């Protein structure tokens, strides 16, 4: 076997490997086997204001746990919960991805209000 034949076979093997990896990736994507990062997962965050702060636009005023005695389902008034991703720098509070909760007129947060 000559050097040019060996080089040609090596190149064909590399190209075949690249095609196999690409095909595998395409098949996984079409089968929906991709994994979403945990920080991009939408979660329910309950408005649970801290003492001295009743601002629904502050991420520290939210918790993953519904406060005792609070029921969601009102038509307006006090925010009860929002849907958002976790803050990548602090997983214990929402990222407030869409900006101000109270100014979100398109309701990207899927807000619910307290039943009062």
Approximate shape: rod-shaped
Strand neighbour order, sheet with most strands: 2-1-3-6
Q: Roughly what is the average pLDDT, rounded to an integer? A: 86
Q: SSE order in H/E notation?
A: HEEEEEE
β-strand percent reads 25-35%
Helix run count: 1
Query: Number of DSSP strands?
Result: 6
End-to-end Cα distance? 86 Å
Calculate Rg over CA atoms: 25 Å
Unreliable segments (pLDDT under 50, ≥5 consecutive)?
Answer: none
Query: Helicity level, as a percent range?
Result: 10-25%
Which structural category fits the helices and strands?
alpha+beta
For the largest beta-sheet, the strand count, sense and barrel status come to:
4 strands, antiparallel
Model description:
The longest helix has 28 residues, at 3-30. This protein has 116 residues and is an alpha+beta fold. The chain contains one helix and six strands; from the N terminus they run H-E-E-E-E-E-E. It starts with a helix and ends with a strand. Strands 2-1-3-6 form a four-stranded antiparallel beta sheet, with no helix packed on it. The radius of gyration is 25 Å and the shape is rod-shaped. It has one helix at residues 3-30, and strands at 43-47, 62-63, 72-84, 86-87, 90-94, 112-114. 24% of the residues lie in helices and 26% in strands. Strand 4 (86-87) and strand 5 form a beta hairpin.
